[in-house]
Amino acid sequence: MAESIGILGGTFDPIHFGHLRPALDVLEQLNLDRIHLIPSARPPHREQPQATPEQRLTMLHLAVKNNEQFVVDDRELHREGASYTIDTLLSFRQDFPDSPLYLILGSDAFSHIQTWHHWDELLDFAHIVVMQRPNETVAMPEQVEHWFEQHVANQDDAKLKSGKIWPIAVTQLAISATDIRSKISQSLNPQFLLPDAVIQIIGMLGLYR
Ligand code: ATP
């Protein structure tokens, strides 16, 4: 049986427990074999990250060093031009032709998915997992809501390799990278929002001050 693989992209500027704990919930609830964490190079939809790609990669490696089901994957950093999720899924499909693939998104990201490059082809390559983010009243545009209803998964869809949308209840942690950067810039202690090893390297590199 081919391995089931989760795909969690983000700026990870920095990685925090609001990414990691919900991702572990998804891994366990959907019985995934592993989750690839993929820092984006030039996110098309938002401000550019403060930490460099190499620094964000280093923070990711430190964050997951005690869990071998989390894999740091730098494939978007090698690509030229803007990083589009559809291209990432294509590259996963080439590497793992027989695996069920699960693209994992927070509800905030899912709610504006119709602005993404070739968004309506994403399900040709993978499933989509939607994690409910705290304080998020997901106002989905009608188009996305219709798409969601058309493709929402049933229990027996687990054997499929792609094509379904899986809403998954996760641990609600109201943590954001924006808040962590703001705390650090005000010399406040970000401890217990992200792994200690990540806090240490942020200090050593002088990030977010
Ligand atoms: P920023 O505050 O800089 O926008 P962020 O904390 O939202 O960053 P990203 O790297 O943009 O982190 O997030 C990557 C993915 O993880 C997105 O799909 C996002 O919705 C999801 N995510 C981030 N924080 C949480 C959280 N606390 N709970 C659930 N999902 C989250």
Determine Rg (CA atoms, Å): 17 Å
Order of strands in the sheet with most strands: 3-2-1-4-5-6
Bound molecules: adenosine-5'-triphosphate
The CATH class label is: Alpha Beta
The CATH architecture is 3-Layer(aba) Sandwich
Oligomer class: single chain
Mean of residue pLDDT values: 94
Report on the structure:
This protein has 209 residues and is of the alpha/beta class. It is 35% helix and 14% strand. The protein is built from eight helices and six strands, in the order βαβαβαβααβαβαα. It has helices spanning 17-29, 53-63, 85-95, 107-111, 122-125, 142-151, 177-185, 196-205; strands spanning 5-10, 34-39, 70-72, 101-106, 127-131, 165-168. Strand 5, helix 6 (142-151) and strand 6 (165-168) form a beta-alpha-beta unit. The radius of gyration is 17 Å and the shape is globular. The mean pLDDT is 94. The structure holds adenosine-5'-triphosphate (ATP).
